[in-house]
Amino acid sequence: MKKFEEKTIHTEKIFQGKVIDLQIDDVQLPNGKTSKREIVKHPGAVAIIPLTTDNKIIFVEQYRKPLEKSLVEIPAGKLEVEESPEDTAIRELEEETGYTTKRLQYITSFYTSPGFANELMYLYVADDLVKMEHPPKGDEDEFVELIMLTLDEAKELVEKGRIHDAKTNYAILYLEMLELRKRC
Fold this sequence. Notes:
Layout: E1 7-16, E2 21-28, E3 34-41, E4 45-50, E5 57-64, E6 69-73, E7 76-78, H1 85-97, E8 99-100, E9 103-111, E10 120-127, E11 130-131, E12 145-149, H2 151-160, H3 166-183
Parallel strand pairs: 4-10
Antiparallel strand pairs: 1-2, 2-3, 4-7, 5-6, 5-12, 8-11, 9-10
Helix pairs in contact: 2-3
């Protein structure tokens, strides 16, 4: 057994949903004792930083029921079965913003909540945006409003708690790092 590895002894599937599955694993710990782990299984997701030609970032505002409030976020969405992260990024960009691009740049991927979930999120930058004449319809239960902000305006919303999710904060830090590099 690797230094910190927890060996799964038994898995009990609790729930299978449209977005997540839940399970409880009995595990053997590195010290030989056993414990339980509540695990959220997720197919993965993408997030996109859409940049306009006039140095604005396209955000979406949407209501987040688990938080009981609206947040301003970068566009994002769940991977569909047999869909590549790149295809998901373009689809979500089009559905949520009405823009498309032929230039999508992969930035990184990260686990959103590794203490209890396996969701891996892929982050992309999209520029050279084109407004679509007939954008595809988004999810019927998803209501979003577009907000175009400069990097400084986005940082103000972080301070006010309107931007309050990890993927969007990560995106803002990434853009800020790019700005700093340009100055050096």
